[in-house]
Amino acid sequence: MRTPFLLVTRSCKAIHRLQQSAFVSSVSALYRHQTISVLRNSSTVSCKDDRSYYITTPIFYVNASPHLGHLYSAVIADCLHRYKLLQGFNSKFATGTDEHGLKIQLAAEAAGKDPLTFCTDVSERFKHLFNSCNISYTDYIRTTEQRHHQAVKHFWSVLWNKGLIYKGSYEGWYSTQDESFLTALQVGDAVDSSGNEIKVSLESGHKVEWMKEENYMFRLSAFRSQLLDWLKGNPRAIQPELFYQVVLKWLQEDLPDLSVSRQRSRLQWGIPVPGDAEQTIYVWLDALVNYLTVAGYPDKHNQWWNVAHHIVGKDILKFHAVYWPAFLLGAGLPLPQTIYVHSHWTVGGKKMSKSLGNVVDPLERSKQFTTDGMRYFLLRQGVPDSDSDYTDDKAFKLLNAELADSLGGLLNRCTAPALNPAQVYTAFFPQSFPSEQGGRAVGEDYHMLEAVKNLPAVVEQHYESMHVFKALEAISACVRQTNRFVQRHAPWKLERSDIRDQRWLDTIIHVSFECLRMYGTLLQPVVPEISDKLLSRLGVQPDERGLADVNFLPKIRGMNCPFEGRVLGSDTGVLFTRLENLDIDKQNPKKTKKAKK
Ligand code: MSP
Hints:
alpha/beta; Rossmann fold; Isoleucyl-tRNA Synthetase, Domain 1; seven-stranded parallel sheet; about 15% strand; binds 5'-O-[(L-methionyl)-sulphamoyl]adenosine; ligase; protein biosynthesis
């Protein structure tokens, strides 16, 4: 799928530059929002090349306020979107809210509000969270919008006209919390908080009820072999691999037809079935079509629909990897290129839930840890293949160690007036650090250069398989190596009056700056504000921050370095302020251990 960066057309490159420049000095909240709106507007400009990319988050249910897990889905998508922009792609990034269905209808009733007002309130809370956390979506979709209603009705009519939907009756289990139909094998016994015996979904633990109603069925069973063919022919379609195997296993099992509507008498809050006012379209069919609505379905979706990638949590894998591709095959549309699956955040080893009182408020935490701190923690510590447990203490330690001490400390050292009185991007002297071992550099220094040089490829591989934590691990390991490099040669001990020492000192700083420039460039998708601060301090201009500009340490290869001799950017303070006196009230780590027991 990838083409060399150089193939980017001039117009796209210009947009890309604009997008990059939008990251500059976005520290104040006001400016940050302007920044994001520049990003949004610019990426709706159509590029006449095939380097388009379309990434989506799931759309979020509005029955409750956003929590940390929701932000996680959004941060992963934002990171991939920003990474694609860095690569020069024209990237579209959609998120939004899922507002129909019984669950929302009941939540609105419980809140004593009319459903649309209720949905608008909660949808605004999600939007506020995403704006506050620099989620640079280019489209925010709500399923209550007209454009979406039209897309869903059209999609339904296509399936209907192809004979893929028929009137039938469903009798079986339904979970309102999951808005999902379950077979007897997926249901187990449990006792609710009042001691009543109930049936629950074995997967989600949510209560299920027996229902019997006339509704429309989709011929899901007819698509089993096509789905298998798709997956066998596209082994990277579902990532990580573990989830690909899970879906393959599901497809070996029985795949009954799927109920795709509910009786209007039970569910009013939804899109009516075209031509049958007695039935409401099943909320999952409605919700999945959001990806097409944003792409411009039914008239002008091709540019984006051929390059669609979905981020989903593991709990909604079946909807995205079985139902959705079957609907798309039925409608004669291309399938998503990748479904990236992530696991969950738990607290005290348990799923976050209101009743357990362990819900982590992402807005509150991002005020404590800063927006970039929160983003870094989620992506550095979140592992797609298995659940991660959240504690404030972990975040506190990680951010202090990696952002404040290691990365911030390195920048601080090399820009300190004591070592760099002229405040310039110092010169590199090949006599001190020749391309072949010699001069004053030692073997470990060459190993470090090798690791940093290879970093873009390593990071790309990990970003593209959604192992962002591995990319960050690799960057963090290199930052530590660069710190050791500085420590090893102790430039503060060099005798400046000796020309040889002065040159070696300049060379050490130059090499460290080159490493920092690499880290700042690669970290932009994860910590946009910190990266901006770092690159600005180094004097790297907004149009010099793309992946194609990275060209690491050209002087060692006898090439010109455009940064050498430049005056550094102004000192705007430490990169990441150490977190002190953290008020860990909600989640005392000791309590967490107890809860685990
Ligand atoms: N509305 C559906 C998605 C429809 S997409 C066509 C939905 N919404 S949700 O609000 O319940 O979940 C949205 C996303 O948040 C899912 O990817 C889900 O996995 C994720 N998370 C919800 N809780 C989570 C954690 N505790 N941890 C990580 N992510 C989790 O499902």
